[in-house]
Amino acid sequence: MNRGENAGHFNKLYYSFSAAAGLLILGYAGCMMYMTGLTGRVIWLSILFICIFAVLCVLLIWGLRSKLAGIVDTLDEIIEGAIRGEERVTGYSETSISSLENKLIRYIDLSFAHEQKMEAEKNTIKQLISDISHQTKTPLSNITLYSQLLAEQAGFEGETQQWVEQISIQANKLDWLIQSLIKMSRLETGIITIHPSYSPVIGTITEAMSQAYKQAEQKGIDVTIDCASSIYAYHDQKWTGEALFNILDNAVKYSEPGSRIRISVATYELFVRVDIADSGMGIAECELTHIFKRFYRCQRTAGFEGVGIGLFLTREIISAQGGYIKVSSKLEQGATFSIFLLADS
Asked: Checking DSSP bridges between strand 222-226 and strand 260-267, what pairing results, if any?
């Protein structure tokens, strides 16, 4: 509540008190005149009483108002000084305001210490994530390289060849999982900062689609994009592209070969809506509120690859830009994911 709101609130109290005092004076004077008669002496005494009582009320109201205004100003100075770390306003006198000032300074000091602690923990986590990323990159790269070298060697047949291929596949899965966990941790701790800008949506969609196109082509899935080049939205192209890819990857993964995925974009006054509709297995209604949770996987997807990170990352990325995401689906009728991006900053 600012000073203007405080003044308005106190003025209402003053006006209410003044009205009550006025009614009391008029009621008292009326009763006196009614009981004693309208004699000149009674009238003059009543007028004198009204004037004296009115003056006392005005002085009382003015004194209370000045006192309250002084307290509010003192509290405002205390808060401003405590925030800037200036010397105390009331000194160390044993008054209620001095006690309040002391508690406020202690609270600000504790808040500052807590903020420093959080920043130190954030830096520690940042260093830990960097170490994990660095330490796992080389072993995984070596495993992938050696598996490729083994696959190129002559003489491997049957099960041996399959084992070599599985080593490469599982190494790639492990690398993807580690990178996803690192991204999730960086987003949650604020290490990764998203920088949205007013840019065309079609470029972000085509970039995301280029990453999922190979898998869609292998399954014979037809992908259509309906988006005008003139449509712009306030978003981070890199991270929004990754969010769109996570949805497209699921759409391709859970759709039958030869099916269709449609990407359409519509503009509203405040948002730009990107719909990704597939004709896959769909999502049960009871699971719609859970699919964006970390590590959650639908019961019907147990036989497919994945760990339940993609949609969680998607929601975090979109939310960090001021947008939101929702989904509508029915079993065996596909699902439609709708991403809403800010139309302007």
From this structure: parallel
pLDDT at residue 1, as a whole number: 45
Strands 271-278 and 260-267: antiparallel
Other beta carbons within 10 angstroms of residue 276's beta carbon come to 23
Mean per-residue pLDDT over the chain, rounded: 79
Q: Average pLDDT of 255-265?
A: 92
Residue 231 makes CB contacts below 8 A (sequence gap 6+) with: 200, 201, 202, 265, 267, 272
Level-2 CATH architecture, domain 197-342: 2-Layer Sandwich (3.30)
Report if pTM > 0.90: no
Per-residue CA distances from 246 to 34, 67, 71, 148 (Å) = 87, 62, 57, 27
Cite the beta strand spans of 218-270 per DSSP E: 222-226, 232-235, 260-267
> Is 295 exposed, middle or buried, given 0-12, 13-18 or 19+ CB atoms closer than 10 A?
exposed
Query: Are residues 188 and 129 in contact, defined by beta-carbon separation less than 8 angstroms?
Result: no
**What distance lies between CA 213 and its chain's CA centroid?**
32
**In the chain, domain spans:** 3-89, 114-188, 197-342
- Nearest Cα to 65, choosing from 24, 99, 17, 101? 17
